[in-house]
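User: We ran a pulldown and think these components assemble together. Before we commit to crystallization trials, I'd like a predicted model of the whole complex to look at. Sequences follow.
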Amino acid sequence: MIKKKVVMLGSFAVGKTSLVQRFVNSIFSEKYLTTIGVKIDQKIINIDNTEVNLLLWDIHGNDDYQKIKPAYIMGSSGCFIVIDGTRRSTLETGIELIETAKKTAPDSHIIILINKSDLKEDWDINDHDINEFKSQGFEVFETSAKTDNTVEHAFTRISELMLNK
Amino acid sequence: MLINLPKNIVKYLVDELPPFTGILIFKTDAESNIIDFHGSYKEYLTEKPEIGKPIHDYVAAVHSMIPPVISPMVLNKIQTKDSKYSDIHIIKESENEYWLLLNDQSREAESIREILQKINEYKYYNESGLSLNNEKTLNALEVFDYLILKIQNDKEAEINGKVPSWLKLLKPNLSKNKNIYFTEVFPYLEVFMFEANEFWAKKENGKLKSGIWSETLENGNEILLTAYAVTHNLEKYILISPLEDKIDSEQMALQMAREQKLAYEKLEKAEQKLKTLLEYKDKFVSIVSHDLRSPVAAVLGIAEMLINDDEELSKLDEFYREMILSIKDEMLRLLDYNDKLYHWSNLELGNFEIVKTETSLKKIITTAHRTAEKKLKLKNISFSTNLNTDVKVNVDLTLFLQVLNNLMANAIKFTPENGEISINVNTDNKIQIAVIDSGVGMPKEVSENIFSGFSRNSTIGTGGEKGTGLGLGIVKKIIDAHGFAIHVESEPGKGSKFIISL
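Assistant: Here's a predicted model for the assembly, 667 residues in total across the polymer chains.
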């Protein structure tokens, strides 16, 4: 079976763990529990009759307290940059991490997830920001791990990109 | 005791020594003499350090290390007293200021030492042909709960020693002395192997520590693990250890720091929203009050025209004449309210400038009295002032007069007929002007918020006078702009006293 490594990158508390847990275990918790280190989950999905085992690297949030080791990104075929729509600072961290990902895993497919779409009235990220990402050739999805909005679709899409479909 | 830590030292602590608790900190001069220290020295040293004495009297390892060759310089696993190992970080702050941070590594040092000891024993028994199942060796390994992997290649390793208890809960099928595809079992190690291979290639002593990762046990619980790459007798080993109690404090500190940061971000956002709303409100009030003036004045003009036209008025019966008079009164009140609102919003937006001039206080009080005279007479209220000798005050005449006018109007409104109002001046220490009435007074909960503008309390006077509730808000703005202070003393039924301190 084809194995593909996908890394979840983003600032702290943007919802990386929640997105993985929603996708893998169909669960969501309101409580914020900071991720220490790395958690690797696996899920097998079927893309056009091809089974892919996704190794989902849920990496701790990037901030002044914990810096993401570029080595974690090495060997990845896909990379989600997760941004919290309600916190503009996480957009800046996301942009920095795109550069890290491009440098460390140049062949990795990058998808931007603007998470917490259930709180859209509180968003600090606007259409202009989203279009800016799109103009650079990135696919952007608005997701919510809480309401299960576009989560499965995002993981399916990254798998398709990794399989060149 | 310490300590005002410089910003860069705080940053270093946060970046390099999480969870940065339990650290012993020294500050020394270029001669290694202790300037100050902070932290539990008993944990690290055999005796209490004395200010002024050389640091190497207490931590021998740092002899001749100050100034350090590079900054920061880190000395790993230095024994500072029996069974106490510390990483010592030496940081140069300035030519004559050095910081030494001692971070306890005893537990780690001891566990690694023990493990290496066990590996030695294992190798010894192995090479000397003794049974691999020698209980003496392998039972001891289990105590430390380390998984020992003897690396064959980038993917395969042999489990040495007993299978630790946590691994049985994680992968029940694994057993000792078996080759496993360790990157399949622990995908995290795939990344660590890049660093480990570099480390082994250097053929240095010591160990390389990995980051932390978590695995889900069969019972659903999470376990946090860390790995060490070590070399022993030219063989490569990876030791994996759970991080139970140590991680608790680290995680708690991180969790708290991030929760605080999140709360701060939320607060900042709410503050920004509030500021925008307030600005919007001020502009709205200013625009509306400005634009209302013209139509209100037009209606007032029509009402006055009708009242002054005796011929037309005589054609109307009493009821309609009263109605027209009411229209005029209400329009006048609306205009007054509108003017106050406009004035208040301009004050709120800061659209005014204080021009102070030296002015006679007596003249201001006389003018304020004259302005209020008609209303005073209507309710037969007596007026007095204690100011016999004139005093000069430095105020913006127009605005300050408005303060006294508003306070007088307020006093008249809430004083019943035949009452008394006075403006008394006290020049003992600083100049204080008090507007005192014998009116209805007010409870504490009203007086506490009386200057906020848009009063929610009754603005109906004792003679049924209607008000805007803005008058005292305007007073406060003008007083603040002057740099003066105002407060009120009042009790229900005992009148009120508004005191301005210049």
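Residues 244-308 of chain B form the longest helix (65 residues). That may be worth checking against your pulldown data before setting up trials.

User: Thanks, that helps.
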